[in-house]
Amino acid sequence: MSKPLGITLIVIGAIMIIYTGFTYVTKDKVVDLGPIEINAEKSHPVKWSPIVGVILLVGGIVVMVTSKKSD
């Protein structure tokens, strides 16, 4: 049970170290006058510290090591 959890934590931690965030775009309607419509695109960055990825990676390794000892 804990081996898949450890592998998942290791993979997520490695991804969070490599990619420290992402940006998504939303469209907001600014003006709507009958057939005339003006939209504005707004960027929303989502950032996290690579330290969080390191913590998850180390946590996954600890889970993997402790699961091997208990088998």
Précis, in short:
The protein has 71 residues and is of the alpha+beta class. The protein is built from two helices and two strands.
Shape: rod-shaped
Class by helix and strand content?
alpha+beta
The portion of residues assigned to helices is 40-55%
What pattern of helices and strands is seen along the backbone? HEEH
Secondary structure elements and pairings:
Elements: H1 2-18, E1 21-33, E2 36-47, H2 50-70
Antiparallel strand pairs: 1-2
Helix pairs in contact: 1-2
Please tell me about this protein's structure.
The protein is an alpha+beta fold. It has one domain (2-70). The chain is 54% helix and 35% strand. Strands 1-2 form a two-stranded antiparallel ribbon. Strand 1 (21-33) and strand 2 (36-47) form a beta hairpin. Helix 1 (2-18) packs antiparallel against helix 2 (50-70). The longest helix has 21 residues, at 50-70.
Q: Could you name the key traits of this structure?
A:
two-stranded antiparallel ribbon, rod-shaped, 71 residues, alpha+beta, single chain
